[in-house]
Specification:
Blueprint lengths: L22 H9 L3 H8 L16 H55 L2 H12 L15 H7 L13 H13 L5
């Protein structure tokens, strides 16, 4: 076994310690050591320490977050009001366009009534008025008269024949000579 050196002596108490040694002596001793020992001696035997982990939320970040939340809350209500007003404006513009189209239709109808031919046509259609010398035909839709002319009893319930059967029978009744 190798003898132990006393602490505080030229060897220090630790291997690789260079307290009290001259640079020349240190270089000579370093040349005879293995590479791993030389690296340990070159660092001065300092132990590695890890840096403290930074805090995730600093005071500045907290204040910034609070300011951003405050701004968000301050702008939320005005933006909501703005968007509702824009929707109201769009709805009113749409209603205005519909009303403008209705006004245009009414103007067009008024322009038609300024034409005397249109007035005459409306009088013929609505009031059945005719000009002197015209012959008028009025078609009266009477279900009982049509049934009687077809040879059916008007008081009888309607039959369940399909429409084309009734059409064919009405054509046959129209072609037959009238009863005396």
């Amino acid at each position: 076994m190798a003898p132990r050196r006393a602490p505080g002596g030229p060897g220090g108490g630790r291997p690789g310690s260079s307290r009290g040694a001259t640079p020349r002596a240190e270089a000579a001793r370093s040349a005879t050591r293995p590479a791993s020992a030389r690296r340990a001696a070159a660092t001065g035997g300092a132990t590695r320490t890890s840096a403290p982990e930074p805090r995730r939320l600093t005071g500045r970040a907290t204040i910034l977050a609070l300011v951003l939340v405050g701004l968000l809350l301050a702008y939320a209500y005005p933006i909501r009001v703005y968007l509702s007003q824009q929707a109201e404006i769009a709805r009113l513009q749409q209603e205005q366009a519909v009303q403008q189209a209705h006004i245009d239709d009414l103007r067009e109808q008024r322009a038609k009534w300024d034409d005397p031919e249109y007035v005459k046509a409306q009088a013929r259609k609505r009031f059945q008025l005719v000009e002197q010398g015209d012959r008028t035909y009025i078609v009266i839709f009477d279900a009982s008269g049509a049934a009687r002319d077809a040879g059916l009893d008007p008081a009888a319930p309607p039959d369940d024949t399909p429409w084309y059967g009734r059409l064919w029978s009405s054509i046959g009744a129209a072609n037959s000579p009238p009863a005396p």
